[in-house]
């Protein structure tokens, strides 16, 4: 049953991201893939709901993953309005030239589908389970809800800060951003480890590979490391903020 769900999920994700790639060629904007990152997980969850026993665990997961994915899509979509293609993809477009179309399909769209399939391992397992809810489930749902609320508040605080024209070159250091340079990523970390605990309560231990991969992405690949690579050059005040504020896990300023 798990193999069937993985196969169907892979087929759905593959078709969706390939269609998005075609649209990106027409728009000349690869950034649309970022808006659909969250909904990819909702698609996996819906596949699990349709193929599984539709247990109460699956129903809760459908609700909380739906809330996480739609909030993230709405936030990223609103933030991208009128901004054009992200500078990461613009740099890639310049560096690879004529092969950009094919490379974007392989290294952006299909890669994101593969990562989503892997990160969603706890979902694949939990959506198929018929076992009763346990204390570990409760802890997982609480941690996921906390993570969703934490990243939502962090994004809202940052959006309000950026909406003030006087903060154009300033660095956000208020609210949750006073205790961590990336509270939104920390919230995402908590959310996926919460989902990981639910998957662990319902299935084999190796499903935690999902949140492990997400953690590596947040800390070392597309999250903290990528964002801070050029931010000091763009915002000199960030150097002082960096020296006294934790990068990821919240804590008192130094």
What report would you give on this structure?
There is one protein chain. The protein has 254 residues and is mainly α. It has two domains: 1-130, no CATH class; 135-254. Helices cover 73% and strands 0% of the residues. It has helices spanning 2-27, 32-35, 37-51, 56-80, 87-96, 100-119, 121-128, 135-163, 183-202, 209-221, 224-227, 231-234, 238-244. Helix 1 (2-27) packs antiparallel against helix 3 (37-51), helix 3 (37-51) packs parallel to helix 7 and helix 8 runs antiparallel to helix 9 (183-202). It is globular.
What would the keywords be for this entry?
about 250 residues, mainly alpha, 2 domains, 13 helices, about 75% helix
